[in-house]
């Protein structure tokens, strides 16, 4: 298990280094350079001076080495636009994105697992068919559109929920207020995960229910309930654990779009602004941190998978 | 069902029925496909969308980009079937022209992802060993990163021209295709007909292209259909963030993005483009699912 964990950890780190190099090359090969250098008020000399000061004249490998060395010491540089340390910018936004994505995943699991169980136990019932149909809608719906529609319904028409942001302006922080602001974005994001999680729970349980040990459990007189909960479900949820790992990159992407719809101050917003103004340090910082969060979460999911199913790490 | 069943256990059916004349793979698939009503409706809907998109500028009743400031937010009428937007432009005409953008991006990006995916998948599956390990590591790596952020960077940095959008979507969505093609190639590589072809002197390239890849066509077809759906969604998300098709040119995504500012004045405005995205993507997904059922009946019977 330890060897397996180390192997996966090395892979995760290598992947992260590759992501950072690709991002670095991509952004530095852009025509034009950072937006602050395109300021028409600056003279040619001033631009050249600023460019030299930011180290943009050095060869790319030198620049990358310098940046990577600083990152290893915990220094992500300073935003070109606001002169704030990138670490502070990310520190202020990352928890908001994690809150959004985490709550959405939790809500998805809480609804999807029972739903998937019922569908698996009553295959081809009206509920099972309805869920199968809704799954198609779930994967085909543009999340941002659903967000706008919910805003129109709950904020514009019914006026019961706020249309965006994290808190009401001019009011002190309160848990209730935060929750009210979370309801719409979390539901929108959760709905995207819901369809897939339900499907995987269902197919996992359907497969497991035909196993010999389930028949044995039945044969020794256990109730349906304890057969399902005590024996089948544990194994049926193993594939669900992996699918969470697969879904994470998409959940973060979905969060970026959901943030734009609900003006939620998270990593997505930060990354989009930085990318459009070519704020190199912020772009590199956000991409690296988001990639790190996703890659290490899927590393942990893999470990959980290996722990739950010994065949994986031994095979 | 067209499949002959031998049912020895049933009384009165002890004699195996005579096999019906063998029908070609594609014909059997078509028979199965055409029985699926949802799929047929989806196919018809998409056909209609293709025609509308192809002749968008002639079909649109009004100039989609003509600004009429005095006609802001008009309700639907005979002249403006779905009303007008914040600049007095005809919403119906813009939706029609937007269809062209979405479908063109969807199809082109899908072709790119299919080409890359098939290439990676078939090379990995056919040659195996070290090549396979390297290619599949890259595929896994691509799947594990939140590439949406990379897509954002690329379009923000290199500009959001049609070509850039299509390339970036294609290059970030070939991984599923690669895995499917690889597993198909692995499955057929060991077959006798491949050994036979090799024994009469066929080279690697010929074996792969003429003898193995044709067997992967059904899976590729399914992946392609689902890939268009995915690409259309991705383009609309980029346009929504202001990084896709640039206004004043209309795309469903940028129409949605615009409309969000006017939900208090004109709450119907965001309804139409979103509904069209939903219906089009849904139709591609239904079609892909039906193709899978038609081309690979074991998939459904396998209990998935």
What does this structure look like?
The complex is a heterodimer of chains A (315) and B (304). With 315 residues, chain A is an all-alpha fold. Chain A has a single domain (90-314), classed as MetI-like fold (Orthogonal Bundle). Chain A is 77% helix and 0% strand. Chain A is globular and about 85 Å long. In chain A, 37% of the residues are buried. Chain B has helices at residues 25-34, 37-54, 56-59, 91-127, 129-144, 147-158, 162-171, 175-189, 192-199, 204-212, 217-240, 252-259, 271-295, 297-301. Chain B is mostly helical. Chain B has a single domain, classed as MetI-like (MetI-like fold). Chain B contains 14 helices and no strands. Chains A and B meet through helix 1, helix 5, helix 6, helix 7 and helix 9 of A and helix 5, helix 6, helix 11, helix 12 and helix 13 of B. Chain B: Residues 99-288 form the ABC transmembrane type-1 domain. Chain B: One of its GO terms (biological process) is transmembrane transport. Chain B: Its main location: membrane. Chain B: Keywords: Cell membrane, Membrane, Transmembrane, Transmembrane helix, Transport. Chain B: The chain crosses the membrane at residues 38-60, 103-127, 147-177, 220-245, 271-291.
CATH topology of chain A: MetI-like fold
**Number of β-strand runs of chain B:** 0
Derived from helix and strand composition plus strand pairing, the structural class of chain B reads: mainly alpha
Q: Poorly predicted ranges of chain A (pLDDT <50, ≥5 residues)?
A: none
Q: Give the CATH topology of chain B.
A: MetI-like fold
Give the strand content of chain B.
under 5%
Number of strands of chain A: 0
CATH architecture level-2 label of chain B: Orthogonal Bundle
Low-confidence stretches of chain B: 1-14, 300-304
Mean pLDDT of chain A: 83
Chain oligomer state = heterodimer
Distance between the termini of chain A: 12 Å
Backbone shape of chain A: globular
Q: Residue share in helices of chain B? A: 55-70%
- Beta-strand percentage of chain A? under 5%
Summarize model confidence as the mean pLDDT of chain B: 81
Rounded to an integer, what's the Rg of chain A over CA atoms?
24 Å
Treating each run of at least 4 consecutive H or I residues as one helix, how many helices of chain A?
Answer: 12
Classified by CATH, the class of chain B is Mainly Alpha
* Tally of individual helices of chain B: 14
Largest sheet of chain A: none
